[in-house]
Structure formats: C-alpha cells, structure tokens
Amino acid sequence: MPGKKNEKITRRQFFFVVIQTEIGVGVLSLPFDLHQAAKQDGWISLLLAGLVIQIIILAMWLTARMFPHVDLFGILPRLFGRGIGSVLSFVYCLYFIAVCVLALLLFGRMLHLWILPNTPFWILSSCLAFISFYLISSGLVVMARIYTFVSILLFIMFALLLAGVNDMQLIYLLPIGQATMPELAKGIQGAGLAMLGFISFYILYPQTEGTPVQRLKTMSLANLFVVTFYLLVVLITFGYFSTAEMALVPQPVLYLLKGIELKIISRVDLFLLSMWIVSVATSFSTYLYMSSIGLSVLFHSKKIRRFAFFSTMLAISISIYIGIEEQPIDKFSLLMTNLSIAFTGVIPLLLMVYAVVVYRIVRRKKDGKA
Amino acid sequence: MNFFKSRTKKSNQSANPEKEDLPNSTSLKENVTYLAEAFQRSSDLKFRVLEEGSAVLIYFESLADQEKIQDKFFKPYMQLTKDELMTKSSGRKMDKRKDVIQFLLKGHAAFAIDGSADIVLFSTTSTFNRSVDEPDNEKIVRGSHEGFIDNLMININLIRKRIENKNLTVNFSKLGEISATKVAVVYIDGIANPKIVKKVKDRLKTISVDYIISPGFIEEFIEDHAYSPFPQMINTERPDKTAANLLEGRVAILAEGSSTCLIAPATFFAFYQSPDDYNSRWFTGTFIRLIRLFSFIIAIGLPAFYISVVGFHFEVIPQDLVIPVKSSINDIAYPPIVEALVMVVIIELIREAGIRLPTPVGQTIGIVGGLVIGDAIVRAGLVSNFMIIVVALTAIASFVVPSNEMSTTLRLLTFPLIILSATLGFVGIVFGMLILLIHLSRMESFGSPYFSPLAPLHVKDLKDTFVRLPLFKMNNRPTDAKAVKKKTQGKSRGWITNARQKK
Amino acid sequence: MARLRWAPLLLCLLLLTGCWDQRQFKNVKLVLAAGIDSTEEGKVTNTVVITNVQNGQSGNGTEQMQVVTASANTPLESRTKIDQKISKRYDQSKLHVLLLGEKLVEKDIYPYLDMFYRDPKSNLHARLAVVGGKVEEALSLNIAGEPRISEYINGMLTGEIRSTQMPNNNIQLVCAELLEPGQDFVLPYLTTNEEESLLQYDGLALFSGKSYSGSYLSQENAKLFLLLKNVMGADAMLTRKIADDKEAVNNYITVDVKEINRKLAIDTNKQIPKVTLDVHLEVDVLEYPPDHLQSEKKVKELEEKLEKTLTKEAGEIIAQLKEANSDALGIGRRIQGYHPGVWKQLNWEEVYPELTIDPKISVDIQSHGIIN
C-alpha cells in the first residue's frame, strides 16, 4: 500500500532523494558540456556552479523556513494571493513536466545512440514513464526508500570509471586558468543543467524530519556530494581524453569505458548505461512527483495518483511529439536551459527577497494592527 | 467464489439451531434418538446399552480409545454408584445438547441415564501422533532436530519448552464454519508489538469460510498483498525457528492438523535465514548467508543476462570467451529465448515429477532428467552447452533459499525477466529489476516494510541480514518486527572486562 | 486494485514489442582480425579474417579461418563488398587486432579509423599495428600451433608491452594522441618473415601528426625510448656492451630496470625552448659473467659505463625523433600545459626539429641476483 499520509522522510532519505534527483540524465554528457564551454577548465565552472547553487539553496531555505508546513505550491498562494499564486504554481507544474519531457528525450536518444538503435522511442519512453508512475504512486516514503537503496549504483558507476584512471594523462588537465569569464559562465550554465534537481528542496523541505538548520545542512551536504561526484567524473574524463578529442565525444563517460576491457567482461560502458537508466528513472520520478503534487494542490484534490497519471501521459505524448532527432532535441534543451535559469535560479532568489523583505513587513504591519 | 458463498449459507440453514440450543431431555430414549439423528445415524457412532436399558454409553468408535474408555469409565463404573459416578468421577456433566455434540466430536464418551437431563462426558480421545521428527524440507546440520507435528497442543508444548516465560501468550480461536479448526496465535507479551498482534487477531477474526485445511489458507486471507508473487509470512516446521522469531517480537500462527507454523511480520531477508546460520561460527554463517543472497541474483537474473548477451550485446563477452561461446551456440536451431524457456520448463518438470514420486523412483527421474536428457538435448543440437550451464545454475541457486515458497517465487520470476531481456536486452533487465525493486519496497507485511533493512535502510540491522556478526554484537532486536522491547542482551561477554578488572 | 488495471496492458505491450535490436550471436560471422591497406590506385583494401566455428559435441569444436579481401573507396564501402562474398554478414564488434598497411599510414590515418570511433558497437580495445609490406599477406599467414591469427598477433603485442618494447596501445588510446597537437604517437611495426612464415616485431613506427613519418625506431632503441617516455611494462631488460674483452660474451651486461625517475625540464627563456631530460634508472643486474659485483668500485664503474652508453643512445633516439618530426615524447603538450603563453607563439611543427633536447641518463645498480 502507498505510504501513509503525513509520514515524513528522514534526513538521510532526504539526502539521497536530492542526490538521486540531481544526478540523472546529465551525468554522461556533463564533461563534454563543460569542455565545450571552458575547455580543460570546465571543472572550475563546475565548482562555481556548485557555489551558485549553494546560494540558491540558502535563498530557498530562507523562504521555506517562513512557511514550515507547506511546500512551494503552498508558499506561492500565501505570498501572492490565490490568483497569481495559482498561476505561478501551474507554470511551475508545467516546467516540471517539461523537465520530465527533456529527461525522456535525452534518455531515448542516449539509448538510441548507444544500445538500441532500432527500438522505437515510444516503447522506451513509455516503459520508463510507467515505471516511474508506478514508483510515485507508492508515495514519497517508498520513493525515498528506493532512492536510498539505488544510490549504491552511484558508487559502482564511479568504481567502473576508476578503470580508466590507469590510462589518464594528467597533462591534459593543463594549462589551468585559460578560460575567460564568459566561457566559465557558460560552463556554469551547462553544469547547472546537470544539477537542476536541487529545486526539489522546495517540495521536500516540509516533508522532512529535523530542525530547519539540520535540513539545510543535509541539503548542503547533498549538494557537496553531487559536486564532488561530478568533479571526480569530470577530472577522470578530462585526463583520459585529449583536449582535441574531447570535442568529438559527446558522451565521454561512456566512451571512456567503451575502450576498456576487464578480464571478466568487456564493454563496461553497456553496464554503466544500464545503471544510468536507474538514475534517469529516479530523477524523472521526482519531477513527475513534484508536478503531480502541484496539480493536485491546484485542483484541491487528494487523488495524487490521478494527476500523476495525467502528468505521465502528458510527458510521454509531448516527448513522442518532439521525437529524438538531433535538431528538435537540441532546440528543446536550449529552451529548457534558459527556462531553468529562470525557474531554478532567478525565481527562487526573487521569492526569497519578496518573502523576506516585502512579505515580512506586510505581515508585521498586519500583526501590529491586530 | 459465489459457489462457496452459497454453500456456506445453505449449510447454515440446514443446521437446526433451535433444537441444538435446547437442554437435554430427561428421557433417555429422547436423548439417544436426538443424538442419533444429529449425527445422521452415522455408523461409527456406538451406543452401548448398560443396565438393561436404563443407561447408555455413547461414543465414536473412530475417535475414542477403547483402553481409555476402560480406564476412565468402566473402572469407576464398577466401583461407584450411578450418582457417585455423576459427581465424583473424572467425567464432566453437560446439560446442553450442543455441548454434548461438540464433545462427542472430540472423541469423548457420553454416559446418559434415564431420568436425568445431565449427561456425563469422559475424555477418551484417541490420539495418533507421529514423532516430533526433523522436518524434511528444513533440515539443518547442527542444532535442534525437532519439528512440529500435526497436533496443536504438542506444537505449543514444543514452543513453551523453549521459552519458559510467563509472558508467552497463546490465544485460541476457531476458524472455518464447518471444519472449526482450532487456530492458535502465539506471541510474547512485552516484546511483540501490540499493534501487530491486534492486526493479526483482527484479520483472523474476519475470515469467514467453511473450512481451513492448512495454514496456507490462513496465509492468503490475512496477508497484505495477495497479488504479489512474494510470500509475506514465514512458513516453518521448526520449533526453534519459531521460538527465535517469537523472541524477536513476531507473532506465530499455528493450526490444528498442520505442522506448519506461520510467522508474521516477515521481511524479504527473513526467508534467507536458517537456524544453521546461528549454529555455526559467525564467519561461516556470514559466508553462507552472503552466498545465499548472491544466489538470489543468480536465480532471477542469470538466464535473462545470458539471453541478452547472446541475443543483443555479445560485445560484452570477454575476448577469450568469444570463440567457446560462439562454437557452443553456433549450430543451435532455436533462438536463445526458446532454448531458455525449454530448459527452464524441463527442469520444472523434473522437479515436479521427482516430488510426487516415491523416493527411489524420484531419484531415477532425477538421473534420467538431469543426465540423460541434459546430455541428449545438447547432442541433438536443441540447446547449447552454455544454456544448460546457465539454467542448471539458476535452478541450483533457487534451491539454495531455505524457504520453499521463496524458492518457487524466484523460479517464477525468471520468466518475466527472460521475456523482458529477449525484447529489450540489458535495458529490459534494468526495467524488470526496477519494477521488482519498487514492488518489494512498497510492500508491507503487517505494517512493517517488507524490504527492510535495505529499503528503508537500517544500517544497524544489516549486521544480521547480509552478514551474521557475532551474537554478542546484536544488542537490539531487528527493527522490522517493531518490537516493544528493543534490547536483547546486556554485556554477554562481560567476563572479559571482569577478568581485566581483577588483574 | 487500480494498479492492476494497467499492469496487463503493460505486459501485452512488452510482449508485442518485437525484438528490433536483436542480433543473434549465433548468426554473425565473427571477425577477430582485420587489416586496412591501400592499393596502387589509392583505393582502400579491407582484409578480414573470419573465424568459422563448427559445433563440437564436446569441447570447443573446430575452427576455420577465412580470409576475404575487397577494395573500394572507403573502408566501409569495402566492407559492403566483402559482405557480398560471404554468407550472412560479418561483424567486427569483437575485433581483436587491426593491422594498417605501411602505404596507408603514410597518409592521414584518421579517416580509416573513423568507422571504429563512430560505431557504438565497435571494439575500441582492439590493438593496432603497422605492417611493413602487404596486410593481406600478413593476415593470410598460416602459423604452426597458432590457429587464430588474431590471437597470435595480439599475444605477440601484449608480450611486447609487458617487456617494455611498445607502449600499451589500442584504437581508443591512440585517438587522444592522434588528435592532440603537440603530441605524437608510435605504433608497433611488424614485418612478415616469409621464410619462417611468421610475423616479426621490428620496432616502433614514428608518427608525425596524423601520418607515418617513414622511419621507425629499431627494437633495440624502442625500449630506451619508452624509458625516456616514462613508460614501463612488467619488466624492461637492457643488454649493453661495456667492455672489450676477448671472450665476446663477457663484454655485455644485462640489467632489468626496476624504477624510472624522469625529470623533464623546459627552459623557455630563449627563442627556442631548451629541454633537459634527466632519467634516473634503478636497475638489477641479471647477467654479468665476469662477476664480483660486491665491490663498490666495480659497481660504480659499471654504472658509469652504462650511463655513458645509454645517454649516447638516447641522443641518437632523440635525433631520430626530430628527424622524423615526431614529438612522441609529448614535449609540445607539456609546453602548452606549463607555458601556455610560449606555446601560442610557437609554430610547433617547425620549431620541434630545431629544439635542443638534452638527455642525461643516470643508472643506479641496486642488486645483482643471488651471486656476487
């Protein structure tokens, strides 16, 4: 049976939900994106992105702390009133579904390129989406349990990558500090896209045990973990591929493992890809969960499963409509990059400013009157 | 289901409730006639007329023990007067027809006298018990070799012998409207979580069927997820295992006429534990437990993995194995999925045939199936050598599980994974495993998570799940049973520190 | 119950899905060794060795090699032509060894490797080698006791890697150095020994940029070159002449390098950078018939002699590298890494041959086996 109502997740589960949401589709191509933007200095961009995200987390925390019992979809109407709040909530739901669509598309394309070139995309996308639907219909507690469990795969993925360390040439990481500021900024954008999941903080915050400071600490730890994980992945791939070769390899993590033969098994990349599917499923599920929670709040309904089904179907249909040809995906992901800056960067910061400055003053005045 | 329902109703109507509730008549003749009618003049109901028709001894020949009748009835009967017999003997006076019928069915002998509404019942039940031998399906190497038998009282006796504690609570109830099977709920008050005990009792109460033949019936009625392939209650015939589980705060359900005991709540990993783990040294116990859990992965995943390798991603075969694998499967006529299905089905056939047949014949079947068919099928080019290895390994791995139910489940789960892997390769396996994982994680057995301690993660419980650390390290009960009393021991190896202090 | 409603639907869906990507292993023709060469007219010749196996009732069955060749404009086009000559289609995702013809590698080799880099199924772990002479001949060799040519060549190359005759190489590893400016690579150079019907490892072919420079390091020099490059296999034995005795065999000493300590210093103050290459070798003596290695003086003397010989050889190797314009030591990439400002002003291809590279090898004899 689905988890009981009002059951909160522990801080450890919260930690894993966040990292599983953040580490998803992006991890395979992250080094390439960083390299495109800032050459061998891409990892600096990654660290900077981690820093920026930490600031946003702080902002989200300041906002969320003022409303300890409601999530984003409860905060928005409280801050802006029912009308504007609902519109904003709805837009956020749509944004989450759009992220789902992007995840499905990139997932489909990756499988299409690497492992199943002839299998129709709709099969793969609907399989993934329905598994995720099954997952989220069990409730957040069960999701958190599973996320915690599958996190072991991250360590296995990392261990597999270590096989490439032998053939690394550290010289490829040099020279350091050649990238210009705009290049680094572009890198931050690319890295941010791989770490979007931190936005789930808004939704998970009220459903997690612990004091506000403890929760902030856990969130920051999760962010640190993700940045460290990515950093190691990026450094290994940067050291393995030469600067010139990197430009040709869009999925360096897989490509690295493709050339490695272990004694008991060769083509390790296929195993990594299989484990990556789990990571995609988890982050996809979180977004789907967030959007269905949002929709159910909007429509004052308790039947989250119904909205989850709706979101799933919507994500599948849009993704099939867009298709997995190179051009539309690139256009869509560019659009999503820009949207994400707004939804996960600018809006949380503005919300914080509004909540802390404007809302607090208004409330104080009201309290004074009363 | 409708069929059963209607039958239940009819049987209720056919019984004669008004008459049954009546007290016995003072007329002997009326009483005897009534009883004879009540049992449909069943031939094994014996009426023994005494004292020229003024008294009758009634009993079921098939239930009562002649010697006991001699002992308990005739000996005092010779010495005492009728009135004394009514009051001073070991018999029990009954004045309700219903009660008399109940006790006659238990094998008691009823003594009725003309002119008295009281009927005296003597406990003369004959019992045939097999000895408390070790159950065949749960053999262990070291430790207790006793097993439950088909008698409820003896089974409870076996448990009580192991836990001599006043808190060991036994609650009887009757299940099955026709069969009226006696069912016992056993738990230790003060350790078992009252919520779980209540849940078990409540669920038992709601069962409304005609008959309960075995605990398997009860299991299906009270488990949380009837549509899951996984067993959610431990089935065991071992008193020591039962006692250990009771001490962990679980609840046991026993039924008259069956040697199987049900234990709830159960977790997935409980099915991978055997008393042997604790009887051997903890290194060995740990090693064996790891092997068993590894066998889970082999049992459900190996055929699927092999099929997706030879059907989709043969790139993953290491360079040195390429030619051996290739030469083994090169001339096989069928695609690997057919090969695998054929082999899995053959193994199931052999297993099923082996179980039903008498032991000597069963062995022959094993040899014929395993050796002759296995060898011939490869020579005929129907199945490749590698597939035989894979499927045989899978079968062996599934038999490693100490629990028979879980082992069957595993073999059943192989099929969907085989199909998935034959359609989507590795991706299919990952999808299948994900569904399985989600399913396991969302299941709950009487309110405690089924896949604990992995999901939700309880790091402390892992020491008695994947490994078996020394017993003196297990200071707390596993969390999944939600025991009220957490601590299991103090400093059991306190003598070390004591010795040090003396020095 | 709600979840059960669509569960059968999902199941049907899965069952209905055919097997689009199924590639039955039993249905492919395995290619374990392949070679690419060029013809006189500049076309590409593709040679593949197909391993046909027959099922044995017990054991591994029998294997037969089928060598097929075809020429076309690109490697993949020639592949199509080969497919027209064989039953079914061949599959090179388990390729073990890829041979490149000497004539072919004189041009840019990237176009010929492109199909391997681009294909998700290709085996990037396959070893690469350059063959002096015709690739087809090398692949058609019938080697006694070695049923599979792929196994033979791969085993040979692996042996060379272990004994520090060549660097670890495969299609993937070459790519990094192939594309990176300021870094060149080497490939093993094999020749066909027709008398003995064998292949023979002859040394390391020096590449300049993306094409073969035309000269190769002899196998005697290859080992020292690798030590200069700070690359070592499982062992690295060096036999050098250190005396002029009557008994010829007494003039030589064989040492096994245990550890390399390399320092590559680049002095960029001048117009053209100056490179000093200090290599310190810690060695064990494996063979030295004159004995008496317990004396410190003797050891010192031997060390000095070895140092002298090796330094001289290193100079020759570097001269050959410069002549071939092959920056196989990766000096350019180091300048780029540590002195990016200097690198931007240099036209490396022109500067490299002018470079002063000063090798200095020091030897430290650590042990001398179980006799003195």
From TrEMBL, chain A:
Gene Ontology CC: one annotated term: membrane
Family named by the database record: Belongs to the amino acid-polyamine-organocation (APC) superfamily. Spore germination protein (SGP) (TC 2.A.3.9) family.
Organism for this UniProt entry: Sediminibacillus albus
Keyword flag Transcription regulation: no
Membrane topology value: Multi-pass membrane protein
Signal sequence, renumbered to the chain: none
Record keywords, A-Z: Germination, Membrane, Transmembrane, Transmembrane helix, Transport
Gene Ontology biological process terms, A to Z: spore germination
Subcellular location: Membrane
Membrane-spanning segments: 12-30, 42-62, 83-107, 119-137, 144-164, 184-205, 221-241, 270-295, 307-324, 339-362
Listed InterPro entries: Spore_GerAB
Name of the protein this chain belongs to: Spore germination protein (Amino acid permease)
UniProtKB/TrEMBL annotation, chain B:
Cellular localisation: Cell membrane; Membrane
InterPro entries: Spore_Ger (IPR004995), UPF0353/GerABKA_families (IPR050768)
Residues spanning the membrane: 290-312, 382-401, 413-438
Keywords: Membrane, Transmembrane, Transmembrane helix
Keyword Membrane assigned: yes
Topology of the protein relative to the lipid bilayer: Multi-pass membrane protein
GO CC terms, sorted: plasma membrane
Residue ranges, annotated region (Disordered): 1-26, 482-503
Chain intervals with Basic residues compositional bias: 1-10
Gene Ontology BP terms: spore germination
Family designation: Belongs to the GerABKA family.
Name of the protein this chain belongs to: Spore germination protein KA
TrEMBL record, chain C:
Subcellular location: Membrane
Pfam families: Spore_GerAC (PF05504), Spore_GerAC_N (PF25198)
Family annotation (Gene3D superfamilies): Nutrient germinant receptor protein C, domain 3 (3.30.300.210)
Alphabetized InterPro entries for the sequence: GerAC_N, Spore_GerAC-like, Spore_GerAC-like_C, Spore_GerAC_C_sf
All copies of domain Spore germination GerAC-like C-terminal, residue ranges: 202-369
Keyword Repeat in record: no
Cleaved signal peptide residues: 1-21
Ranges of residues in domain Spore germination protein N-terminal: 21-191
UniProt cross-references to PROSITE patterns, sorted A to Z: PROKAR_LIPOPROTEIN (PS51257)
Keywords, alphabetical: Germination, Lipoprotein, Membrane, Palmitate, Signal
Topology within the bilayer: Lipid-anchor
GO cellular component: membrane
PANTHER family from the UniProt entry: SPORE GERMINATION PROTEIN B3 (PTHR35789:SF1)
NCBIfam families: spore_ger_x_C
Family affiliation: Belongs to the GerABKC lipoprotein family.
Protein name: Germination protein, Ger(X)C family
Organism, as annotated: Sediminibacillus albus
Classification lineage: Bacteria, Bacillati, Bacillota, Bacilli, Bacillales
